[in-house]
Amino acid sequence: MPFGGVLNEDNRWLKLSALIPWDEPEDEYAKYFSNTGRPVKDARLIIGAMLVKYKKKASDAEIRDNIQENPYLQAFCGLTSFNTKTLFDRSSLSE
Question: What was the pLDDT predicted at 92?
């Protein structure tokens, strides 16, 4: 359980996360990047953010801020502890 087990495992985002076979979309995502140059953002973070954006029908900037403020969304996106810094630029979702 992420976040030291202090999150409610009945939360909708944690339940949805458990249903997703994360390795499959991560493998597909990795095909689009090389091992040289600037490192890419973690696949689960970006894929998770895109799924949150779709479910919430919100802008890139709103999703970035929602994930930064919400430990359940951070856990859904693969983080294991709460992070208060900006995890990605809003343009990361549109690029």
Answer: 64
Query: Which of 38, 54, 36 has its CA nearest to residue 93?
Result: 54
> What CA–CA distance (Å, rounded) separates 57 from 83?
23
**For the whole prediction, is pTM greater than 0.90?**
no
**Percent over 70 (pLDDT), the chain:** 82
Long-range contacts of 16-24 (CB under 8 A, 24+ apart): 16/51, 16/76, 17/48, 17/75, 17/76, 20/51, 22/47, 22/78
Query: What does the block give as tokens for 45?
Result: 């973070």
Alpha carbon separation from 55 to 23, 42, 59, 91 (Å, rounded): 21, 20, 11, 19
Contact (CB, 8 A) for 50 and 33: no
